[in-house]
Design a protein that fits this description.
28 helices, 11 strands, seven-stranded mixed beta sheet, 609 residues
């Protein structure tokens, strides 16, 4: 198998090309000892299978951050666990090729075969620009392939090139400094290209979207649409999933006699994992919005808009990108903090990331909000449920920033690195790339539900069924189920721990759900699905409807407050340890968030009561 490194400067369409080439044949690279985990995909050609490694974007081979260091070490063949690639697929933007050729000049000196994918040729032509790729190919001595990743143009040529031995670049006569490389790139492009006219659409949009007033208002509107869509757009699909799960449970009840097997299928498998899968549509919408913001070019502008606000908390706009990524999952968000050159700023961002409302919290929020908050109009199309969801997001984010500020003024005192960010041109996200990203992230969510949550659900089901009681046939089935649950091992565990959470208003069932979610937050929903399955006459009723009849408002608000803050993810704690190199910071983060979670949950319960 041939190993090819996909390399390029930021904002040149590298991720779009990677998604277009690999499709769903991609995963996070699991390399021993590697903290920065690049995406790895397989590409099948007529003659062989190529492993494509998508390395972090760089401007030069002089790294300034952790992710850039990985790229440089791999290209130079000095990384301890990733060998030097057999070839490099270098992505060059036809719209802004000078910085890309400057990077090429450094890679050419390594003696690695290179193929150049020339992206955004459609935007170059639309802007009245021109690039002689044939003449440039002769001068550099490597193959240059024009592509438009969003439309699939040129992908076949790239696949054909990957199947053949790539060419080693011609020797360059160049002054090996950053200035010398840019001068060389400028001279080469002067012979083979004409620059496009400035993108008028981008300039016009930036006048509005970067305006201190109108740009900020637009940002707020985008966030409102984001929160409202999580409920409104997902509701029909959620009802469809709920209906499917209910039909399955009804079919099981009708097809199998009452037995331990029937209970295992309905209360172990379907009630556990099924109660989490129902929130997949909301996870899809969450990831869709983040992908659109990133690929459209708006994400970089949002970072610029919030830079001044971030400065109030001792951070900079560069921290916005990993923090926004943490709204999908804190793990990649924490890993994305490697783009921050300052170690102190990087640790402060890592400490704030778990307070961002990740997709694992979303099923918990959606379940509890649907159970205790009415769907009444609040402001225009915004409902009270969406408003509460937005408030939870804001509370978590502000608390994370306050924690970062406190750390920056105490344990992490130090100067701030100047904030610089490049604005890409606005573009319509390619549907193939978006679809690939959404499917990959959904698959990750479902795999998680099918492993950790499934295993825990089955263990919990066993705890609820043992020790087995002799059923009393004179009593209704629902009463038999309630008596079995009240005298089970699960009840013993929940009741033993419940006094710790009694001030928050939790009974032993809710306590067991909270404790289970310290492994993974989503397990709370699965636990509730099993704990309350026998509390209503309709066994196939959606869990949120069940809790609506049972869960007091004070307990619902207390749970929401608790989940805003509690660091309930073993994987996140492990990644924090790996990224910071010590247990000091994850231990401190766990202690701070647990105290905040318990204190705010107590206040919410007390005030609501």
């Amino acid at each position: 198998m041939t190993n090819v490194a996909l390399v390029g400067t930021p904002n040149v369409g590298k991720s779009t090309l990677f998604n277009a080439l690999t499709g769903l044949q991609q995963k996070v690279g699991n390399f021993p000892g590697v903290t920065v985990e690049p995406m790895v995909g397989t590409v099948k050609t007529d003659s062989q299978t190529v492993r494509l490694i998508d390395l972090p974007g760089v401007y030069s081979l002089q790294p300034t951050s952790e992710d850039e260091r990985l790229t440089v070490e791999v290209l130079k063949g000095i990384h301890p666990s990733i060998k030097q690639p057999d070839a490099v697929l270098l992505v060059v933007s036809a719209v802004d090729p000078e910085k890309c050729l400057s990077l090429y000049s450094a890679i050419a000196e390594l003696g690695i075969p290179v193929i150049i994918a020339l992206t955004m040729v459609d935007a170059l032509k639309a802007g009245g620009g021109f690039i002689d790729d044939i003449g440039l190919q002769h001068e550099l001595g490597v193959q240059i392939i024009p592509v438009v990743g969003t439309k699939g143009i040129g992908l076949g040529d790239v696949l054909h090139a990957l199947a053949l031995p790539a060419r080693i670049p011609k020797p360059l006569t160049i002054t090996p400094t950053i200035e010398g490389r840019h001068e060389w790139a400028h001279a080469v492009l002067a012979k083979h290209s004409t620059a496009p006219a400035p993108d008028s659409i981008t300039r016009k949009l930036d006048r509005f979207l970067l305006h201190p007033v109108w740009g900020s208002l637009t940002f707020v509107v985008v966030m409102i649409i984001f929160f409202q869509s999580i409920f409104t757009w997902a509701e029909p699909l959620m009802q469809l999933v709920e209906g499917g799960i209910g039909m399955l449970q009804g079919w099981v009840e009708a097809s199998l006699p009452p037995s331990i097997l029937t209970s295992f299928i309905n209360r172990g498998l379907l009630a556990g994992v099924g109660s989490v899968i129902v929130f997949l549509p909301q996870i899809l919408i969450l990831n869709l919005f983040i992908t659109v913001l990133e690929e459209s070019g708006y994400l970089a502008r949002a970072a610029f808009l919030v830079d001044r606000a971030m400065g109030v908390f001792g951070l900079q706009g560069r921290s916005f990108i990993p923090l926004l990524g943490s709204f999908a999952c804190a793990i990649p968000g924490i890993m994305a903090a490697r783009i921050i050159p300052s170690r102190k700023d990087r640790i402060a961002t890592i400490m704030a990331a778990p307070l961002m409302t990740c997709s694992a919290r979303l099923p918990v929020y959606a379940l509890i909000i649907a159970a205790v908050i009415p769907s009444t109009p609040l402001l225009g199309p915004l409902t009270l449920q969406a408003g509460v969801m937005a408030l939870l997001y804001v509370a978590g984010a502000l608390s994370g920033l306050v924690i970062a500020l406190m750390l920056k003024r105490t344990l992490l005192r130090g100067g701030t690195v100047p904030f610089m960010i490049e604005f890409p041109v606005y573009r319509i996200p390619g549907w193939r790339s978006m679809l690939t990203t959404m499917i990959a992230r959904s698959r990750e969510f479902l795999v998680n539900a099918g492993t950790v949550i499934l295993v825990f659900s089955l263990i919990l089901w066993a705890l609820t069924e043992l020790p087995m009681r002799e059923p009393d046939p004179s009593k209704p089935t629902i009463v038999q189920q309630q008596e079995q649950l009240e005298n089970s091992f699960a009840a013993d565990i929940g009741k033993a721990i419940q006094p710790v959470f009694a001030p928050l208003g939790y009974d032993w069932k809710v306590t067991l759900g909270v404790m289970s979610s310290f492994a993974a937050r989503e397990t709370f929903v699965a636990t509730m699905g099993q704990m309350y399955a026998a509390d209503v006459e309709q066994d196939d009723a959606p869990l949120r409807h069940v809790l609506h009849e049972i869960l007091p408002l004070s307990v619902g608000l207390s749970l929401l407050a608790f989940y805003v803050y509690a660091l309930q993810c073993i994987s996140t704690i492990a990644v924090m340890r790996r990224e910071t190199g010590t247990w000091k910071w994850p231990a401190l983060a766990f202690a701070i968030t647990f105290v905040l979670a318990y204190g705010t949950a107590f206040m919410a319960h007390w005030l609501a009561s």
